Structures are given as structure tokens and as C-alpha cells.
């Protein structure tokens, strides 16, 4: 297989009621390791980039990395721009070749969010790309985007009208989930997922996945969460793996950066394989 549209991945997952890991990478090592983990698990994977990562590496360099590492890959993969409120970055990534974007206009009034999302969907279609939409901020700050203040949830009909009017391909509802590390066990409004799915038949994106229990993941995926976002767990694994290795290097007074990269890459790959198994996407490559 190779690079495919986001819709190809999420619709198969939605129909089969399994979840596909949507993992935020932030450098070449994490990109390589996540792709390697997907191949080992024979799983589709959604590789996500934050606005911060796009700006720090540069869209051109980042996309060339993506092209080089996915050339001849054996599983379905797709490249997604996560939580982007900046239309200029949306345009840059779509023009460069990203397969999908999350236009995050959740800080705007719903009517203005809807108006601009319609424009982004039309723009994406011209590029052969797809769009994820949302009308409420997911609590928590991720790579400089978002707020720790919980936003007011809109009535269900407002969400349904937004989905129908904009034509988004995936929808990310606020259900009590949060970005970052949960300070306490979240109370999730799982029925909201079921209500949206029943009314629209649209695949749901689950944000704030890092830290949810196996039971919560299983329930939400069964209800239609076909795209399961993971960011904090990868950052934690990367930093903890680096710390363990560097402490050992300090003790041994042995300084070999390639060995560090191999160790951390192996741990990130293992994390990816575990997520694919946990969400049910392992063995689902086509």
C-alpha cells in the first residue's frame, strides 16, 4: 500500500468499528519510528503534525521527509495537519501535499466557524484532501493551541447542522476529553458520540486520547471513534526513553548519539505497535 486519503482510512475503520492511531510526530526520528511501528503491526496509521512542528521544521522539509520515508511503504498511511486555526498554514500544507487538515476555528462563534469551514472544505477538495471539523475547543493546550478553560458544549442540533452544512469528513466533538495529561479520571459524555453517529453516519475523531482507560477506548471506538489522537503519550515516551538512555550513558561515560537514536526509536515503535493492537487496527492494513 502507500499514502492514501484520510477518508479511505477512517471510513474503513468506522465501518469495521476499530480505531486508527493518529499520532503527532515532531521530528524525523518520531516519524520514522511511528511508520515502522505501523508496518510491524500491519496497521494503517494517521501521521499528524501540529502547527508548531510545521513552523519549526518547515513545510517543505517536513513534506520531503514524509515523501522519503513513505516511498514504497507496505501499509496505508496519511498525513494530517492537526488543530490549525491559521488559514495561511492550512493553505501552505494543502498546497504542499498534506492529505487532510483539522481547521480549528472553535474559538470563533459557530456561524463564523461554519462559514470559514465551508471555505476550507472547498479548498481541500480542490487539492484532493479532506477536512476534520470541530465547534468546541477540546480542553487543554497542545503545542501552543487551545485553552485550559473548558468550553461550553453546543446543543446537539448545532453540531448536526454544522456537519451537514460544511460537509466535513470527520468531526471532533467535545465530550469531556482533554489534551495533555489528565489530572483526574475524565467523565465522558459517550452518548454524544452515539447521537452524532446515529444522526449523521460520520466518523468521529477522539482527541485527548493519552491517558484514557482500555474500557473507555473500547467503548468510544465501538460507538464510532475511528480516529484516535495520540500526542502526549508519544512525547512522554520520547522524553522518558531519552532520559533513561542518557542516565546510563552518563554512568558509563559513553557518548554515542546513534545509539541514543536507536533506543528511543525502538521505544516509539513499540508504543505505536501497542496502540494499533489496543485500538484494533493491527492486521487491518490492505
Automatic annotation (TrEMBL):
Which spans are transmembrane here?
none
Its cofactor is:
Zn(2+)
Q: Which domain of life is it from?
A: Bacteria
Q: Which InterPro entries match?
A: Aldolase_TIM, Class_II_FBP_aldolase, FBA_II
Gene3D superfamilies named among the record's database cross-references: Aldolase class I (3.20.20.70)
Output this protein's name: Class II fructose-bisphosphate aldolase
Amino acid at each position: 500500500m502507500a499514502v492514501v486519503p484520510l477518508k479511505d482510512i477512517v471510513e474503513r475503520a468506522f465501518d469495521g468499528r476499530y480505531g486508527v492511531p493518529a499520532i503527532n510526530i515532531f521530528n524525523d526520528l518520531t516519524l520514522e519510528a511511528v511508520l515502522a511501528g505501523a508496518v510491524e503491526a500491519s496497521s494503517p496509521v494517521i501521521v499528524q503534525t501540529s502547527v508548531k512542528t510545521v513552523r519549526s521544521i518547515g513545510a517543505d522539509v517536513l513534506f520531503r521527509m514524509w515523501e522519503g520515508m513513505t516511498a514504497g511503504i507496505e501499509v496505508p498511511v496519511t498525513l494530517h495537519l492537526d488543530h490549525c486555526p491559521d488559514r495561511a498554514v492550512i493553505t501552505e500544507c494543502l498546497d504542499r501535499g498534506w492529505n487532510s487538515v483539522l481547521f480549528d476555528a472553535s474559538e470563533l462563534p459557530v456561524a463564523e466557524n461554519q462559514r470559514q469551514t465551508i471555505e476550507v472544505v472547498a479548498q481541500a477538495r480542490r487539492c484532493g484532501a479532506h477536512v476534520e471539523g470541530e465547534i468546541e475547543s477540546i480542553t487543554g493546550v497542545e503545542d501552543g493551541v487551545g485553552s485550559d478553560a473548558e468550553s461550553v458544549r453546543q446543543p446537539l442540533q448545532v453540531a448536526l447542522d454544522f456537519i451537514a452544512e460544511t460537509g466535513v469528513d470527520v468531526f471532533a466533538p467535545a465530550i469531556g476529553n482533554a489534551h495533555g495529561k489528565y489530572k483526574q479520571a475524565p467523565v465522558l459524555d459517550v452518548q454524544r458520540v452515539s447521537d452524532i453517529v446515529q444522526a449523521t453516519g460520520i466518523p468521529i475523531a477522539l482527541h485527548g486520547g493519552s491517558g484514557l482507560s482500555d474500557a473507555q477506548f473500547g467503548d468510544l471506538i465501538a460507538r464510532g471513534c475511528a480516529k484516535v489522537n495520540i500526542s502526549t503519550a508519544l512525547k512522554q515516551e520520547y522524553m522518558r526513553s531519552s532520559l533513561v538512555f542518557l542516565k546510563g550513558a552518563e554512568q558509563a561515560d559513553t557518548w554515542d548519539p546513534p545509539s541514543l537514536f536507536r533506543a528511543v526509536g525502538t521505544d516509539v515503535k513499540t508504543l505505536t505497535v501497542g496502540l494499533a493492537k489496543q485500538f484494533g487496527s493491527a492486521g487491518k492494513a490492505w
